[in-house]
Amino acid sequence: MARPSNREKILNEGLRVVHERGFMGASVRDIAQAANVPLGSFTNHFPSKEAFGLEILERYFEQSRNFNAQILGDSSKTARERIDAYFDKAIAGLSCNEMRGGCLVGNFCAEVADQSEVLRQRLGRIFEDMRDGIKHVLEEGVATGELSAELDCKRIAGFIYSSMQGAILIAKVLRSPLPLENCRAQILQTILK
């Protein structure tokens, strides 16, 4: 089996370091050290830290989108059950890390949206993609009669994703899944009743 290239090592280890320390808190030197490559290797593969940030964000997003598609696309479950499972996934992911790390997309939104127009625009498209995944579930729930025909699926899907991101940030602060549990309860018991 071929050894991973320096570029792959930088992306893999860099994603881990940025997830632990934040994008602004992880220096290029930290990333190169974690990848066990010379500092110049980083600049050989990435023209800037922003370009590196786009690549790890894209990598993380692809992983998240694929995993979420399994949960949200499970047509053997009702729309409400899929939204419930979506929250279960978020809570389990945070709980296994003692409520540390969170969602890299949410972390980037909080940390770099005001610093990088390129990253901000990509985050906006990621939000739309994630919202639309939830929207499709809600539309299926409306079509089957499980959810109210009056439900504005696009608006509520955006609210669910935004609320979850906020709850993840507060769960990290409190080191407790309670904000996510409360968010889920309000969505399932009040909004999607």
Can you tell me about this structure?
75% of the residues lie in helices and 0% in strands. The protein is mainly alpha-helical. It folds into two domains: 1-46, Orthogonal Bundle (Arc Repressor Mutant, subunit A); 59-191, Tetracycline Repressor, domain 2, CATH 1.10.357. Helix 4 (49-72) packs parallel to helix 7 (117-144) and helix 6 packs across helix 7. The chain is elongated. The relative contact order is 0.11.
Summarize the structure.
The protein has 193 residues and is an all-alpha fold. Helices cover 75% and strands 0% of the residues. It folds into two domains: 1-46, Homeodomain-like (Arc Repressor Mutant, subunit A), CATH 1.10.10; 59-191, Orthogonal Bundle (Tetracycline Repressor, domain 2).
Give descriptors for this structure.
mainly alpha, Arc Repressor Mutant, subunit A, Tetracycline Repressor, domain 2, 2 domains, 9 helices, 75% helix
Question: Which structural class best describes the helix and strand composition?
Answer: mainly alpha
Helix content: over 70%
Please state roughly what percent of the residues sit in beta strands, choosing from under 5%, 5-15%, 15-25%, 25-35%, 35-45% or over 45%: under 5%
Q: Please outline the major beta sheet.
A: none
Number of strands: 0
Mean pLDDT, to the nearest integer, reads: 93
Radius of gyration, taken over Cα atoms and rounded to an integer in Å = 18 Å
User: Could you say how many structural domains there are in total?
Assistant: 2
Fourth-tier CATH superfamily name of the largest domain: Tetracycline Repressor, domain 2
CATH architectural grouping of the largest domain: Orthogonal Bundle
What would CATH call the class of the largest domain? Mainly Alpha
What's the SSE pattern?
HHHHHHHHH
In DSSP terms (H or I, runs of 4 or more residues), the helix count works out at 9
